[in-house]
Amino acid sequence: MKPAPDFLQSIFEQTFSTLQQARQSFSPLLQPREVGIITSIATGIAIVSGLPKVGFEEVLKFPGDIFGIAFNVNENEIGVVLLGEYWHLQAGDEVERCGHIVDVPVGDGLIGRIINPIGEPLDGKGRLLSSTRLPVERPSPAIMNRAAVSVPLQTGIKVIDALIPVGRGQRELIIGDRQTGKTAIALDTILNQRGKNVLCVYCAIGQRTSGVAKVIATLEKQGAMEYTVVVVTEGNDPPGLAYIAPYAATSIAEYFMQQGRDVLIVYDDLTHHARTYRELSLLLRRPPGREAFPGDIFYIHSRLLERATHLSQEQGGGSLTALPIIETEAQDISAYIPTNLISITDGQIYLSPSLFELGVLPAINVGKSVSRVGGKAQRAAYRSVASNLKLAYAQFEELETFSSFGARLDDNTLKTIGHGRRIRACLKQAESTPISMVEQIAVLLALTANLFDDIPLTLMSEAELAVRNAAADFPAEIITRLETSEELTAEDRDAIIQSVHNALAQFMSSQKAEEIV
């Protein structure tokens, strides 16, 4: 056997030397793993034993890359809420601790995307681009880090912006029976944020697939997905996903708020969220209370909505405005969950089925609706023209009810009723047609100046459109004052009224006393 050439000999020596150094420097790393087993499986939950050091809301990993949240931490077993399809799990399967609580990806890469509560994309546009994750459960900002609500959040809906205004950082509840237009109001508010530097997060909780698809199609058609994140759980998703959905959506919104930006979040709806929590709690053998809800049902919503606020300038000055939606049954706003949320929020927008059936859209009952904060955030010019409108409308509703009994009415009462009917006609608004603040002020100023009173009700929609078109021709300095916090001067008011009067002249000349008020 011939000896190996010198160059091969040197290669062998170098290789063996490298292997010897690697063997000497290697030390086996022992990493402890805590593993338990499933003792039983039920709808959306699992009972696990053998993990004595698990903490509350810690993430556990199940076979098939399914994750769960430790919900009940008892002495001998753990009740786990599952966050995925669990049909393949069975008693005896291993469960592993992950060592962290459930979190969600956040950042600019989520804008325009549709995801589920654990950050998995649902829109077929590939993986999410995000380098930061935040826990879905986070403490709300401290009181000292908050500032007063001082800037309006324009919804583009006349009746809300005039009578039930919402400020940036406020929590305004949208409440009403099924199919009365609750989602439509929230959707119109999102559409109206185009060009206003407000990011939006829409959270669908346990909604039907067709309903979510309709909302997303509207957002895409109107170009609103450019500034919106959609977090979705559907009706057939595991209840654990529906439970964490609003918290995950809030963490996404909080990330932008902490960057100093203004954010709007819509929870659609918290009725499903409360029912999901009741389902999970009863499956985990927690004691039921009123209407079979567990005793901490108030706490799960209060700790969610307390995260909506307006931060002080030292904290960046961002804001998070919440529009939670709640569904009532047979107009019962005194039920358990509605009263809970009414006490947590800063006001409510109540939608009436009777108004909906009469074709008064949006079907907002002004008498039962209130905003405890937004009036202070209204622009000065807006507040000056809308201040007396709610009182006039309330008087009209009382007199209209009285007149339905057939009583003889004097001329002043007839005039008040006629004026109120024109207020109601002007407050009607089609879906997905938000109106700018300048146009709204022009219409409201015409109402308060009684310029519509001589116009037949049949021509009110055309007359209102003429006023809105006339608003585009206002002088630039007047428009600037209307859009800022400056008050409306007497000269500005006179100029607007004159412009509106000229726009309505064609309708006034055609009307006569044949109209029966």
Automatic annotation (TrEMBL):
Pfam families: ATP-synt_ab, ATP-synt_ab_C. This is ATP synthase subunit alpha. Residues 156-371 form the ATPase F1/V1/A1 complex alpha/beta subunit nucleotide-binding domain. The record marks S369 as: Required for activity. Signal peptide: none annotated. F-type ATPases have 2 components, CF(1) - the catalytic core - and CF(0) - the membrane proton channel. CF(1) has five subunits: alpha(3), beta(3), gamma(1), delta(1), epsilon(1). CF(0) has four main subunits: a(1), b(1), b'(1) and c(9-12). It comes from Shewanella polaris. It comes from the Bacteria. Belongs to the ATPase alpha/beta chains family. CDD domains: ATP-synt_F1_alpha_C (cd18113), ATP-synt_F1_alpha_N (cd18116), F1-ATPase_alpha_CD (cd01132). Keywords: ATP synthesis, ATP-binding, Cell membrane, CF(1), Hydrogen ion transport, Ion transport, Membrane, Nucleotide-binding, Translocase, Transport. GO terms for cellular component: plasma membrane; proton-transporting ATP synthase complex. Its main location: membrane. Produces ATP from ADP in the presence of a proton gradient across the membrane. The alpha chain is a regulatory subunit.
